[in-house]
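Memo to structure team: turn this sequence into C-alpha cells by end of day. - J.P.
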Amino acid sequence: MTYTFKLGNRTYKVDFEEKEGLGLIGIDGEQKEMEFLRIDENTCSILVDNRSVTVGIFREAKKIQVFYEGDLYEIEAVSGRDASQSEGTGSLDITAPMHSRVVKILKKVGDNVEVGDSVIVVEAMKMESELKASASGTIKEIRAKEGETVEKDSVLVALSDSE
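Reply from structure team:
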C-alpha cells in the first residue's frame, strides 16, 4: 500500500508491505526492513538495522505528530489529488504542537536554516522538545518570546523558502 506524506514543503511517497511477519517500508524508492510492535494506542517500538527505537505517534485528522528521540515532527497525510498540487513555494511556519511554554529561541531573524536544524525549544507536560525546520529557508519572523505561554497551533517562527 502506498501513502503520501508532506513534511514541510517536501512530499514523500511511502510504500508499506508486510512480508513474512516483517514490514517493508520504502521511502522514495529506498526500502528498509522493519519490525513493528505496538506498545499502546500512541506508542510503537520499531526494530530497524538491529537498532530498537520507540516513537510516539499522535494523529488528528490529516496531521500526524511523531515524537522521536526528544524531537517532534509534524507530518501531513496527503490525498492523491492533493499530492500533485503540493509542490508550492512561499513561507513555512513552525507552530506549537500543543499548549506549551517557549523555553529558548535558538535562531534569530535573518538566519538561514537547513532541514532538521533546531529553531526553538518548547516545554509541555514537563518535557522539552526542540522544534526543527522541516525545510531549508531563512527566518523571516519570530512571533514568540522566551518564557511566553503559547496555544496549540500558534505560529512561533515563520520561514521563507531559500529558493
